[in-house]
Design brief:
With 167 residues, the protein is α+β, with helices and mostly antiparallel strands. It has 5 helices and 6 strands, in the order αβαββββααβα. Helices cover 51% and strands 22% of the residues.
């Protein structure tokens, strides 16, 4: 198998969000979710690992993402809609970084409306640093469950934040 075939296999091709246990999202939150899903699907590297000897499943993959009882639930299915793996993660290790990221994004959006470019740039640097930290935490939380690159973990963090916003 060549690298192009492997790249197309180790990829998320569909994301569905189950927000049935969450409050109804605002229009802004719905838009954030759409953008986050689009960005994740546009470019990602995602390879779920089996429990035995970390052998990967065959992809591409479909994800169903939900937040229930303060847990992140990710159901990974094959292209043929066969459930391959369900991952349950406590949101506790992510709660503070999600809160920090939400707050700095709010500061950034407010700054864009009224501050000088140099001040906006400083806030944006902080926003990117928190975003990077969120991606790193996700890679750690998915250790031995899913292999992903840093850009994918950052995009997934953005999506989780958009889902978590209304929680």
């Amino acid at each position: 198998m060549n690298n192009k075939d492997q790249a197309s296999q180790n990829k998320i091709i569909s994301v569905e969000l189950d927000d049935s246990d969450l409050p109804a999202p605002s229009h802004e939150a719905q838009q954030e979710r759409k953008v986050a899903v689009f960005d994740l699907l546009e470019d990602n590297y995602f390879k779920p690992l089996r429990n035995d000897n970390e052998i990967p499943y065959e992809g591409p993959y479909k994800l169903l993402i939900a937040i229930k009882d303060q847990r992140l639930i990710i159901k990974i299915s094959s292209n043929e809609d066969i459930l391959l793996r369900e991952i349950l993660l406590s949101l506790s290790p992510l709660r503070q970084i999600l809160k920090d990221y939400t707050e700095i994004c709010s500061s950034y959006y407010n700054a864009v409306k009224r501050l000088a470019p140099s001040q906006i740039e400083t806030i944006d640097m902080g926003r990117r640093a928190i975003h990077d930290e969120g991606g790193k935490i996700l890679i750690q939380r998915f250790d031995r469950k899913v292999e992903m690159d840093v850009p994918t973990s950052r995009r997934l963090f953005t999506l989780i934040t958009a889902l978590y916003l209304e929680n």
